[in-house]
Design a protein that fits this description.
Blueprint: E1 10-15, H1 25-41, E2 46-49, H2 63-72, E3 78-85, H3 91-104, E4 109-114, H4 121-126, H5 137-148, E5 169-173, H6 176-185, E6 189-191, H7 200-210, E7 222-230, H8 234-253, H9 272-281, E8 285-288, H10 290-304, E9 308-312, H11 318-333
Parallel strand pairs: 1-2, 1-9, 2-3, 3-4, 4-5, 5-6, 6-7, 7-8, 7-9
Length: about 325
């Protein structure tokens, strides 16, 4: 059995299409494409976008449109959803949309599926999301699989395009429920440890122990998503991370805002109680120089034995965000 290490696993990107203070969605989309084009050169494997709604600091509401935009501007990078919140959409619509993407960009599209609303309860209602939709998630995944299968060509309802296309489906999750589902369906599994670290180890164990091989996947395959902010020095990385910490603190307190410019990471930067609450949420966040980040990521991979690492980096300065991913790309080649 091969041991997964920092140098032999794949690295990927989760882009939340974050809107920074003083910027706008147009700037965000331009920077997202620039990031995708650069990480493609640096050897990253995939670039996923997440569906969120009613958040002034996140512009990935029309996730499918953004996936097409990124795929059109790149050539080898896999592009997909991390994820599409399936209860917000009819499975047939998702099959048609991703069938269209996979037709335009063959062998490059991933379909990651989540069961959360990706928003608050009022916006969920505005999306016409059924209150029982989360409970129907497993059956909706299977319905979607049916539309994309070759065997549905005699079905009364068909996804054209989509039917018969080899579109990898992923189950996304932040709890053990998703692990059981991914295992039972024999699908690859991506865990959101970048904001929900508590259940990571239990979820991975459940998924691997209960995995049933399928037509899509013969053995368990796991992605863990983490936050990384790398810079030339520990101090510079900590300075850049002040933007990220303020953003996540806003999520915790319900005061969601756009990504703010970094500030000096002195002892007055954040209230100690806030810092303690924040650290529970961002346990798997790696901030520092190349040497520090390398050591911490090596330890994380050794413990979890994930097959792929997906990295989110909420950095205000676009050049600094690029440099953070560039550092990761270099660490992956060592």
């Amino acid at each position: 059995m091969t041991t997964n290490t920092l140098s032999n696993i794949k690295f990927s990107v989760l882009d939340l299409a974050i809107v920074r203070e003083g910027g706008n969605a147009a700037d965000t989309f331009k920077n997202s494409l620039d990031l995708a084009q650069n990480v493609e050169k640096w050897g990253f494997n995939r670039f996923w976008l997440a569906e969120h709604h009613n958040m002034q600091g996140i512009a990935s509401t029309a996730t499918v449109v953004l996936i097409g935009h990124i795929a059109a501007g790149t050539s080898t990078l896999r592009v997909g959803s991390g994820g599409i919140m399936l209860p917000n959409h009819a499975p047939l619509i998702v099959a048609e949309q991703f069938g269209t993407l996979a037709t335009l960009f063959p062998d490059r599209i991933d379909l990651g599926l989540g069961r959360a609303p990706g928003t608050d309860q009022f916006t969920a209602a505005a999306l016409k999301r059924d209150e029982h939709a989360a409970m129907e998630f497993p059956s909706n995944v299977e319905e979607l699989q049916r539309y994309l299968s070759e065997g549905n060509k005699n079905g009364r309802v068909r996804a054209i395009p989509g039917e018969g296309l080899d579109i990898p489906i992923w189950i996304l999750g932040s709890s053990t429920d998703s692990a059981f589902l991914a295992a039972s369906l024999g699908l690859p599994y991506a865990f959101a440890s970048h904001f929900a670290p508590a259940q990571l180890h239990n979820a991975l164990a459940i998924y691997r122990r209960n995995f049933k091989p399928s037509a899509q996947l013969a053995a368990p395959y796991v992605i863990a998503c983490v936050n990384v902010i790398a810079a030339d020095t520990d101090y510079e990385a900590e300075r850049l991370a002040t933007s990220f910490k303020k953003l996540f603190l806003g999520i915790i307190t319900g005061n969601r805002q756009q990504l703010k410019a970094p500030e000096e990471p002195n002892e007055d930067f954040m209230d100690p109680m806030e810092e303690a609450a924040l650290q529970q949420m961002i346990q798997y966040t790696f901030i520092g120089s190349p040497e520090k980040v390398k050591k911490e990521l090596e330890n994380f991979i050794e413990i979890t034995q994930v097959d792929e690492l997906m990295v989110a980096s909420a950095v205000y300065e676009h050049k600094a965000r690029l440099h953070s991913y560039e550092i990761l790309g270099e660490l992956n080649k060592e």
